[in-house]
Structure formats: C-alpha cells, structure tokens
Amino acid sequence: MTASLRVGLAGLGAMGRNHMRHLSARDGCSLVAIADPELALVADAAAKTGATGYADALVMIETADLDAVVIAAPTTAHAALTRAAIDRGLPILVEKPLAATVAEGIELVTAARARDVPLQVGHVERFNPAVLELGRRLENGWLGTLYSIASRRAGPFPARIRDVGVTIDLATHDADILSWIARERPTRVYAETAQRLHESNEDLLFGLLHFPSGATGMLDVNWLTPAKRRQLSVVGEAGMFELDYLTQRLTFTSADVGSPTIIDGYATTFEGNVVTIDVANYEPLAAELDSFLDVARNGGRPAVDGEDGLWALQIASCLLQASREGHPVDLADFGRLIPAS
Hints:
Layout: E1 5-10, H1 14-23, E2 29-35, H2 39-49, E3 52-54, H3 57-63, E4 68-71, H4 78-87, E5 92-95, H5 102-115, E6 119-122, H6 129-139, E7 146-154, H7 166-182, E8 188-194, E9 204-210, E10 216-222, E11 229-236, E12 239-244, E13 249-254, E14 261-263, E15 266-269, E16 274-277, H8 284-298, H9 306-325, E17 329-330
Parallel strand pairs: 1-2, 1-4, 2-3, 4-5, 5-6, 7-10
Antiparallel strand pairs: 7-11, 8-9, 8-17, 9-10, 11-12, 12-13, 13-16, 14-15
C-alpha cells in the first residue's frame, strides 16, 4: 500500500458526488480516478479534484493505478464492476444494494472470499450515530425481550431511479437494520406492494418479517410521501426506543407507566417516562468511508460485509416474491447458499 491510498470512484450520481466530496478531502487517501458515462460530470469532477476522468468505469477499474475502489454506479452495473475489482484484488466499497439479483450477489461474495478481497456494502445507516447508540443500549439490556421493530422510510418520487423499484433501492436499508437490531436473520417474510408513479417497478412496500426469537419486523417504504421521513421504533418488555435517522434523535420511553393521566375524572392515557438520549452527531457517510479505508489499509472484515449485503438483498427479493405470489415466503434455508466465511 502507498502512504496515501489511491482510490477510484465509479459513478457520479447523487451518492457518487457525496462520496467524491468526502474522498477528495480525506486524510490518508487520494481520489485519483473518477468514472461516469456523463462526460460533462466527469470533466467537472476532474477539474475540482484533480482526478483522472474516465467515461467507462470498467476501464478505470481495469487500468488505473488504484489501491481501492468505491462503486456508486446504478444497481444493474454493480455486479460487473465489483467482479472486475475483485479480479484485480482491490478492496471494494459498493453502494447498496450489493447487486441487482441474489444470484449476482452470491457470485460476488463467493469470488471475494476466494480471493480474500475485502468487500464492504454501503448500508450507511449502520454508521448513523443514533443507530450505533441504540445498538449499545440494546446490548446493555435496556429492552429485555425484543417484541417488535418498525421502520418507516418514505419520501418524494426520485425521477433519477429507473432500474429498480423502492424495495431493492430503499428497503434493503431496513432489511439490514432490522436484522442487525434483532441480532438474527428473518425466517419468513410477507409483503404488499403498489406501483403508482414509477414506470416499471413498485414504489410502495409494506413488509412483515418474522424472526426466530418471535420478534416481528415491519417495513413501510415508499416514494409517494411528499416529505422525507426516516424513522425507527423498537419495542420490548422494558419500553420503547424511537429514532429519527435524519435528526439523529433517539428517545427511550419506559414501560413503567406509573399513574394514568386524569382528565375530567377519566383515566385517558398511560404513558411511561420519556428520556432523550445524548447522541454525538456526525455524518454517517464520513464514518462509513473511514471504516472502509481502514480495512483497505490494514485488512480485516468490513463492518458491513458482502454477506450482510447479500442477506439484505435476499430479504428484499423475497418481499417482492411474497407480494407477487400473495403468500409468505420462507427464508430458513437461504443461509446454506452463502459460501462459508
């Protein structure tokens, strides 16, 4: 490894430009190559960063002098670009979802393990400080037995996304987060979807996840809500956590409700004490890139590895299958298809 990691960036869409902003200003790495088929974007990015521009991301990966690569291209391009980076032995951060299909994802995880190439998947919510603080509290037993996890990820329709629907594009975030919170993978899923605005794919998903412990997960994901919402609630025997991804606000409501509120002689509500938990705010993408660059330099297993990304993709794919077929889909045997780590 060079003193400053030479990093290539494939894709200059909205997420790619966010990666560029951080990589071009990060200590310990140099953004030396940028690729996108939109030549005007490449020219502008190259002028701002001093990186060499490429019209073809595959050519960049195969020929540029790189120590690591970040792939933020459209979902349908993930498999070919990630496989090319694996073949070169380059540590990879590929934006979520890992691939467009589960079969592609299995191939990538298998290839990365065979070559001992670090493969990190960009489930950036895992680096949200409120999520990490929630994880610490759960580890310390604040909730006791976990009952349910409910996630809402909604916002306006993104005209730029045409290759996949809201389930593969967005619900993979929540499939990963719910599994991480439950500390187990779901064994059964069911879903209802709708297509209202998207030309070819679903833009609304309501999903249910059943976990081996008996906990239940619920996903509300859509591109139809006129205001952006990113929320999570976790309920257990000792109370409830509520989290806002955008504001990084985390609260805990105790299940010990005490005396009811009395209004005009009636006991109308039973509410536990609500505590706002201190969270040191920072940008999750910066933390994600720091984690990736550390693995690229020093080795080790990424915080969100290919297997995590593969499971999120499988859960999302099974949610779509359940919606199409009108019945729950079993995931109990999926783990056997994943190559041993």
